[in-house]
Amino acid sequence: MNQSTAYFISPHGFGHAARSAAVMSALRERIPDICFEIYTLIPEWFFSEALSANYNYHTLRTDVGLIQDSPLSENALATLQALDQFLPLPLNHIEHIAQDLANRNCLCAICDISPLGILAGKRAGIPVALIENFTWDWIYENYQQANPGFSKHIKYLREIYQSPDLHILAQPYCQPNANANLKARPISRSPKKTRQAVREALNLKEGEQMILITMGGIPESFHTIDYLQQFSNITFVIPGGSSRFEHRKNLILLPHHSTFYHPDLIAACDAAVGKAGYSTIAELYNAGLPFGYFARPSFRESAFLTAFIDTNMQSIEMQGKHITDHEWLHQIPALLSLPSTRRDLPNGANQVADFLYHELLG
Hints:
- This protein is of the alpha/beta class.
- It folds into 2 domains: 4-187 and 347-361, Glycogen Phosphorylase B (Rossmann fold, 3-Layer(aba) Sandwich), CATH 3.40.50; 195-337, Glycogen Phosphorylase B (Rossmann fold, 3-Layer(aba) Sandwich), CATH 3.40.50.2000.
- Helices cover 36% and strands 20% of the residues.
- It contains 13 helices and 16 strands.
- The strands form 3 sheets. The chain has a 7-stranded parallel beta sheet, sandwiched between helices.
- Helix 1 (15-30) links the parallel strand 1 and strand 2 (35-40).
- Helix 8 crosses helix 9.
- The longest helix has 16 residues, at 15-30.
- The radius of gyration is 20 Å and the shape is globular.
C-alpha cells in the first residue's frame, strides 16, 4: 500500500485551507505521487481547485475556531457554547481517527491548528507537524475575562499545541516562538493562469483598472454595493457578490464558488480591498499588489496582521467599519496610485515543503 500524508485543517474561514492547499501543492511538486488524506469541514471543491487529484477528502470537525456573525465580527458566547460541546475531545473519538490514519498507512500528520489532528497523529504513533500563525488557546485568551468559561479550554488546548514533533510558524505570526523549527515567509497559493488570460475571461478592456473586493471565506452580504458604479472607469470584481455570474455595469459579481480560481483573480487585479485575513494578506504580499484593508480590532490577531501589512506592503487602512460603508470610497484613487512590489524571495509554501520533505517525507 502506498503511504499517505494526513492533513487536518481548521474550518475557520478559508485562510487555513488556502495555506494548507499551498503547502500540499508545493509538496506535490517535490513528491509527484504523494497522496493526501484531508480532514476538515471546508468544502471539498476548495481542494479540488488546487490539487485536482490524488487526495481523499474526509468530512470532520477538527476544531471550533471562532463563531462569526460576519467577516468582521465574532460571537464569543456562541464560540464558548460550541467549545463546551466539543472539548475535551473524547478518547474513543481520538482513537477512531488514529485507527483511520493507520488503516490509510499515513506516514505523518500535518495540522493547521487542528487539536484533533495533533492528538490523533500522536495516538497513531506518527510524526506530527503543526503549522500556525496563531493557536486557538492564544485567541481565546482575549475573551476569558468577560467569559471565564474559556479558561479550561485554554489550558486544555495549550497542552496539545505544545506536543507536536515539528512546529512551523507562518509569517505574519502572532506569537514569536524561539523553539519553532521553522519560521516561514507568507504562505500562499499560486495562480494557474496568466494575468492577461484572466482579464480576457472577465471581459476587461486593455488598460482597464480592476479592484478585487474580497472578504475571505465567511459569507457576506453585498446588497448595497451599487454605489461603486460611480467609478465608471474602474471594474470591481466581487467574489461572493451574487449566487450567479453577473456583469452589472462596472461590477462583476461572482458566486462564492465560481469558475475563477481566487489566486487567478488576485493576479489579474490592480489592487484589492477587503478583510485583513491571513490568506488575502499572503496572496497579495507574494503578488506584490496594493491592499486597502479593513482591520478587525476585536480580533486578537488583527494588530499583528495590520502591523505586517503596514510594514511590508503597499497599503491603506480603509475608513469605516465595513465594506458596505461609504466612508472609504474617497481612498480608491490613492489605493490605485500605489505601486506594485517585485518579490524575489520564495513563497513560504516552498520553504515549508522543503522542510517537511527533508524532515518527514524524503
